[in-house]
Amino acid sequence: MLSWMTAAIVGFIAIAFAPELPSYAVIATTVSLIVGLHLRLRSGVSLALLAFTLAVAYASSYGHWRIAQIPASGEVGAVIQVDSMPERRLGFAPYYRFDARLVTLTCSDLEVHKKCAATGSFAKPFVQLNWYAESPPQLGDLIKADVLLRQAHGYQSPGAFDYGRWMFANGYSATGYIRKPESVEFLAKRGEFSYSTLRQRLLVAVAVYLDKYRHGNIMKALLFADRSDIDREQWQIFSRTGTSHLMAISGMHIGLVLAWGFFIGRGLGVFLPRSNSLIFGAGIALCFAASYAALAGFSVPTQRALIMSVVALLALCWRRNMSLWQGYLTAMLLVLILDPLAPHRAGFGLSFAAVGVLLFAFQGQRHRRHHLVLSLVRSQWVVLLGLIPLLMMWGYGINPVSFPVNLFAIPLLTLLIMPLLFLGLISLSLSPSLADKSWQLADYLLDVLLRGLAWAAELIPQVNIAITPLSGVLLTIAVLVLLLPRGMPARWLAILPLLMSFLTPAPRPAIGSAWVTVLDVGQGLSVLVQTASKTMLYDLGPMFSSGFNTVDAVVVPALYRFGIDEVDLLVLSHADNDHAGAAPALLDTMDVKDMYLGEPIDGLTQAVLRCGAWQRWQWDDVNFEFLKHSAGKTRTGNNASCVLRIDAAGASLLLTGDIEKDLERELLGSGQTLSADLLIAPHHGSNTSSSNEFIRAVSPVEVVFSAGRNNHYGHPTAAVTQRYQRFGARCWSTAYHGSMRFKLANSAAAIDQIWGGSRYYWQAAPNSTASMAEMCSNLQSER
């Protein structure tokens, strides 16, 4: 049983991460052959092969169905069914965001009409839409409107959260916005008694009461999985103390409510005649867990926890001789059948890894009741130790305080805060005063919890280690050996490879060479330059009015992934938001030793130097030189940009910020050396820069355009890419290739690693990306 289930699970995971899907013809042919082979052999091996093949066929068919739901990018007419309450968001101006189904689609573009019609007839795409006006449509409304659709795209960068991947894995087919909201036609409204309508109305009604408490935002997260009001500072505290899982309704929360229901049901079952208290308790437990999952909107983590709960309860009630590992694999297989894209969610890996670690560590052991407290303490230690390899490989980092903090936070939350929250919710309509007292006490306890977490977060800094494949294997083996039963001889020797993994320095360039990583920060710029012992950042990308910034989202995760915990030099080319907007976030997070600016930037209090005059220095036999602007001129805006040339091992890099053609001409006439093997294209590939004369003088072998996918500026423009093409340059774009690393060594700038591109099968869909061959005919994007 374990072999065929394991084979099926491997098949599901293989397709989830496949770059392409097999065709229906290949699927049908393969399934037919394997079924025939199994009918002939009827062996355990053939059964496992059949399970693997059926899983691959099922997951592939699901993938084809999801790809068919991706609508054509561009403007379309649609009948839209609003599936969530509009959420007010902050941008340059307030706007609203909601989920919706595209019931029907009509496209005016003849080239995409066929795709549009096929999508509308085959499925109703689930999309996320913005409404840039007041009075948005409400949950259940059916409207007719013109919408501009794009497939969701996230930052493709080491350690960064991939928003596009998350959107597709959570069922979304596209994002977009309603065009001309004033001309929207309201057609009908869904019935008032649908599940989503009732849940949203309950959430809105309860939120009116919760918003008056100091930590009402966290109360909503714990009751309804509504984490939209948790701010950046609170998330940072949870992340630094390893307690983010407390805010995500998942296995721990559902398991807690399940336990409450089971013990209450068994207690009541004793007093009911002719009833099996075990069956009654299991039924009440399932009702409790399902009700809580319904409050949380049946999110994917709650669905996963419910499936695991059902498997555990069935095994308990049937009193079958089912091993724990059988129940574990059964739950995992059912989750994958329900959602073949579940492996793309961190919660899937972390939850099943945590349970697997517990089963591995406690297998064959019996725990007496008087050792219950010690068992709980040990189980917490086992989970934290067992998840270290996964957390480090995913770039989450760990904090030594997370173990004692969780020992304090989990009992406080599960035994006191959550019961008080549910008591307040249940008594709200019966006794508002009791609900208020319950929530007041819960608010006080949450304040105690957050104060303790904030203190712990400052006590010891989070540990972030760059994990190589070799150190990752050593770390995993060491942890598994440490989790073996106590009787295993010399198992504590595994501490040595564990320490080696933590103490092994992150890879760095050799003396005299340099690594250049162009980070994908969307419509902006950020370049990381590493030498043997030094680190420089050139620009940081934007900060948005909502508080979201690319330092938190991209730059810092990349630095941690590369084992960097301080910056020797920060260069902010000029004051534009897309280059320097996120600087305050970096200065709040990481130690920056020195800073150069192209022009003054408001809000930066750290001592800085101007880069307009000539400066030269050397790190680890790598030469750095700011090119000189004309004396006596005070420049602002794009032409204030710091122009930096780096020479390493016979290769060179030119960083130009947003300089425009007039400054390019000035540099050409200055007599300074401009030639470079690698050029970061000026001004993201705008037609205001990259003149023919400048490109000829630089003569780059590689040119990188740092621009956002589908940006409304049209960067890089076709005229600019054609100029580089004429001069024989090879073109790269963060919009399509994501972050990329070049090595300056051996007299060349060689591409070393790419973090973007069509990594998963839905990204290879014809309408999801443009052909880079249109941008530069000699483009090479080997991966």
TrEMBL record:
It holds the Pfam family DUF4131. It is a multi-pass membrane protein. InterPro entries: ComA-like_MBL (IPR035681), ComEC_N (IPR004477), Competence_ComEC/Rec2 (IPR004797), Competence_DNA_uptake (IPR052159), DUF4131 (IPR025405), Metallo-B-lactamas (IPR001279). Its main location: membrane. Residues 523-709 form the Metallo-beta-lactamase domain. The chain crosses the membrane at residues 41-59, 246-265, 277-298, 342-362, 374-396, 408-429, 463-484. It is found in: Cell membrane. Keywords: Cell membrane, Membrane, Transmembrane, Transmembrane helix. PANTHER family: DNA INTERNALIZATION/COMPETENCE PROTEIN COMEC/REC2, RECOMBINATION PROTEIN 2. This is DNA internalization-related competence protein ComEC/Rec2. The lineage of its organism: Bacteria, Pseudomonadati, Pseudomonadota, Gammaproteobacteria, Cellvibrionales.
